[in-house]
Amino acid sequence: MGTPLTSGEEDIRKDPQASPKSLQEPQNGRSGDKEGGMPEGAEISGQTEEGSASQTERLARDSLDDSVVVKDLDTGRAINVLKKYTIRDLNTGQLFVVDAEPATASEAASEPGSPKTAPNKLVTDVSSGREMSMEEFDRALGLHTALEPVKVQAHSKLVKELTHLCVIQELNAHNGVIWTMKFSKNGKYLASAGQDAAVRVWEVCLNRGETENAEEGPRVLRVAPYRTFAGHTADVLDLAWSKSQFLLTASMDKTVRLWHISMDDCLRVFKHTDFVTSLDFHPVDDKYFISGSIDGKVRVWNIPEQRVVDWADVHEMVTATAFAPDGRRAVVGTMKGRCRFYQCEPSFKLEYQAQIDVKNRRGNTSRGRKITGMQFMPKDPSQLLITSNDSRVRLYDGEPPAAWCRRAGFTLRTKYKGHHNRNTQIRGTFSSDGAFLICGSDDGWVYVWTTGADEDKAACSGPDKYCVAVTQEKSASYECFHAHNDIVTVALFAPKTARRVHRIPSQRALGQVILTAGYNGEIKVFENLGAPHWLHCS
């Protein structure tokens, strides 16, 4: 399998363009280097040092959280569900205790999805002991906004998380559909691309107080693009960031292009024989990347040498690719709903290990539908999320990574449903802590599920005791809200760098920032400014 099949790859091997052996990080923002040239002083390296810890990571870890014990009826495992939890203001260090007791009788009697009226006093200022209403609390944190909250519907939920979700920013980002949108590894930039073939990079407002607007609230993204990369001649379908701010883009023009945040011009072009649908930087050594194409082949590339290291023929269209977090394995998704696993060490050689068929047991989708996206759960690489065109997002439990070489090493842990995904490249993604899952939908709505086992199929047995039965195979417990008047192609949780409030611990949605994109080229930014509360249980 070491011999390339494409003329473009043969040309690359014969003439590597005398490229430098290492790619070094630019020292300035000058552009103008010819296409194929590298910024002076830049390096792509698996040993790149991570950025400094974010402001939220420097917060105290002590928790004043009070909880009730919930029992998983399937496994017998006890789970803590918060009654009270703490929130710290990043700007002042002020600590608050928020009461998450069950909703009042008037709230419980209201229709699902309708606005709830919170009790008068839910928050206590730890330093002064003063109790305050949620509105006073919002003002104390600088979260108050003149905008009306978006209506959020809760379906089969015990705890409603998105209790005060507001649109805080709207950007006309592209001319046409936005197919892909991802944050950089350090959370400082957002890249977007789509039908207009342009790749735009947006700077995240790290100090959001500086962008405060009395009517709109603080912006998450700078209004003007930080960079606009031009070079592709057809739709851009996927993109990937490296740890050192390099950006790869995959296009229907049959190429992958390499960019750097400090320069306007393209640094490398990697030619394929057909549309390139997906790609991913190697997480350990980012001198390498993997690409998938509808020609049925998955390729591993060496960037400095601009050549194919190895390839594998999947014998059907490749629609999704990803490296495992340790970089030792690669996952490939196909048009017919197959997910194939490869060992890719040593020397980045692809060795087939196993395959799972991502499909329903019966019905119209029992033959398998296109896999549109794959992501490993943050902090738990044994969990793999797979999105497909049968309107399902599935979470697979692979046990330890060593079990990947056995077919039996993969079990379907949860099947998330509620959204509509029949033909487009919609994909589900995790929040940065893995506590939430979000996905766009063909109906213009955004759907949010919790990945923990603390509220599915719930039943109450008194004001202070809750008993939860968790369904391991299906989860139709979600919250959803209308975001666009057309298909929502992308929905993301923003990283911690874009959030104004940090909660201890962080398994709740207060302060979460959500970004969405759709067919009209618009990016919308939502922020959840309300604390979670208990819904009616029967």
Automatic annotation (TrEMBL):
Residues 19-30, 45-57 have a biased composition (Polar residues). The keyword RNA-binding does not apply. Pfam families: WD40 (PF00400). Residues 1-61 are annotated as: Disordered. The keyword Signal does not apply. Gene3D superfamilies: YVTN repeat-like/Quinoprotein amine dehydrogenase. It comes from the Eukaryota. Keywords: Repeat, WD repeat. InterPro entries: WD40/YVTN_repeat-like_dom_sf, WD40_PAC1, WD40_repeat_CS, WD40_repeat_dom_sf, WD40_rpt, WDR44/Dgr2. WD repeats lie at residues 171-204, 229-269, 269-303. This is WD40 repeat-like protein.
